[in-house]
Backbone:
C-alpha cells in the first residue's frame, strides 16, 4: 500500500533494508528529529519519515551518510514543495 506524503515540509523516503543494515535506531531518530508516531511510517520495503519541520537536512544527511546510507540509492528527500491541492503517495517497488 502507498503511504501519503505531506506537502509544505520535507519528507524522507528510506529503503527499509538499508535502514536496518545501518544500525540506526527508531529511538535515535525520534529523539534527533523530534518525531511523533505518525511521522515514522513503515510499509513493506519503504520507511517514510516526516514531514520534517525545522530540521537542517544537510547536516542530517551527513549523519545518514556516516551510518552507511547513500543519498538516492538508499534514501531520498521529497521537498514538500507542491500545492495543497496535490496529494502524493509513495511505495517501494
Residues:
Amino acid at each position: 500500500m502507498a503511504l501519503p506524503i505531506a506537502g509544505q515540509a520535507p519528507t524522507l523516503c528510506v529503503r527499509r533494508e538499508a535502514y536496518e543494515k545501518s544500525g540506526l535506531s527508531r529511538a535515535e531518530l525520534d529523539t534527533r528529529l523530534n518525531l511523533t508516531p505518525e511521522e515514522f511510517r513503515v510499509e513493506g520495503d519503504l520507511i517514510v519519515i516526516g514531514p520534517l519541520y525545522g530540521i537542517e537536512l544537510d547536516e542530517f544527511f551527513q549523519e545518514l551518510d556516516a551510518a552507511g546510507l547513500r543519498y538516492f540509492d538508499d534514501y531520498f528527500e521529497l521537498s514538500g514543495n507542491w500545492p495543497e491541492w496535490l496529494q502524493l503517495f509513495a511505495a517501494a517497488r
Q: What stands out?
A: DSSP finds three helices and six strands in the chain.
